[in-house]
Amino acid sequence: MIFENVGFYFREALLSFRRSTLMATAAVLSITTILIIVGVFLLISVNSNLFLKNIESQLEIIVYLKDNISTAELSNLKNNFTSMDGIKEVKFVSKEEAYQRLLKSLGEQKDILSAIETNPLPASFEIQTKDPKMIKQIANQIAELKKVEEVEYGQGTVEKLLNFTYIFRRAGMLILALLIFASILIISNIIKITVYARRNEIEIMSLTGATSWFIKWPFIIEGFLQGFISAILSIIILYKFYFFAINKVHQVIPFLPLVVGNMDLLPIGISILLLGSLVGILGSMFSVGKYLDV
Amino acid sequence: MIRMFHVYKNYPNKIQALRDINIHIRKGEFVFLVGPTGAGKSTFVKLIYRGIVPTKGQVIVDGINIARLKPGYIPYLRRNIGIVFQDFKLLYNRTVYENISFGLKAIGATNFEIRQQVKKVLNLVGLEHKKKIKPHLLSGGEQQKLCIARAIANEPLILLTDEPTGNLDPYTSWEIMKLLFHINIRGTTIIMASHDKLMIDKAKKRIVRLERGRIIEDTQRGIY
């Protein structure tokens, strides 16, 4: 039955666009607006996520070593770190390197160091963790190892920062969920209005003995098309707008990390497409069902 | 063709629309359903096409007990029943031709069958030359004829008409009546709810009179 009449269903759906151009245009424009709002929020959320990740990836543990450490003990320690869970990268900074870094950072004031005869700086390891949340636990573990003088990871600040990123992410997810929920309600209501305008048609079809699926299919296709076309429109508008906006932002803050890869933006496009089409399909299906009870 | 046994219908607002209805309408009969507004005529008609189910009692249409009919089978019952409404219920954004072809497509007719059948019924009601225009350009009588054409397009066993001459002048009304007689002669059972004293007296057909939900008169060749 479905396959026999596919052509008819599509023709009916397309004809209905032509028969009620105004209604269909109004519906598409409204749905497009809603999807753009969702899209803007999605773009903001992926970018702030990238920003947070960037901050978190800069967190590291610095392990200062005792001066009397031997080469064997050094490589022993290094092996120890690499065998630990949750460690991403270990970098050794020798006493000499540390001294050179200090010289560099002092710049023209490097003469201060001439007052000191020996290199007072300790050798150290710079350790990055896979998960920033584990930083405290790993630091404590390392502090207990032999020949470790001191461990530093920005105690206090790190906890606050992680707390902030956690709340920020949760709030973002909550807002996103509410926004998607609201957009589903609004889109399905728009679809419902377009179906309501044609309730006579549904009633007549039902009275002439059309099966409920025969009646539903053209509406489902129409709902899908409305959602799909709106999604495509909003994706095009968002895409143009987004690259225009990030150009402007980069002019003002050049080093701000922003999502620019088409591949990274693809999931957002797919989400909008799915949101538009699925709500279009389901919205019209349920709305027609309501008027089928004659 | 249609039998009702002790049928009661109560609506949620506690109105008793029909009370203890017993009737037998044979195949090929022409029955006028008369009575004041609110007597239960529309409820009676709705029961036949299963727009509603009885609160109590049995309604048998062409051997089918409509109360036991599963929702999925309702469309198949309705394919044997043509319905003509007083308010036409035409699709004004489709042409005369499409208003009829639409219903035929819905019941799975092929394009060839649809063309044949639409031509046949449009000829019968005399609207063949207006098939390409939209219904709002038709007169009231023509719109009613179009409704009849749509209702009989799939050659139903039963034709239900709810005050089909309600808004028409006497001349046009009689034309519609003649059309219905013609359809009746070809074997279709017709049930017509009406107030139209003039037509009913002239027709000399079976009259079923409803009042406050009860049948108070059922006479062959009756007058209003």
Query: Mind describing the biggest β-sheet of chain A?
Result: 4 strands, antiparallel
Which structural class matches the secondary elements of chain A? alpha+beta
Rg of chain A (C-alpha, Å): 31 Å
In spatial order, strands of the major sheet of chain B run 6-7-8-3-9-10
Query: Any idea how many domains of chain A?
Result: 2
Proportion of residues in extended strands of chain A? 5-15%
Q: How many H/I helical runs of chain A?
A: 9
Oligomeric composition of the shown chains: heterodimer
- The low-pLDDT segments of chain B are none
**First-to-last CA distance of chain A:** 23 Å
What is the helical fraction of chain A, as a range of percent? 55-70%
Count all strands of chain A and give the number: 4
Shape of chain B: globular
Strand line-up in the sheet with most strands of chain A: 2-3-1-4
CA gyration radius of chain B, whole angstroms = 17 Å
Mean pLDDT of chain B: 90
Structural class of chain B, by secondary structure, is: alpha/beta
The fraction of residues assigned to DSSP E strands of chain B is 25-35%
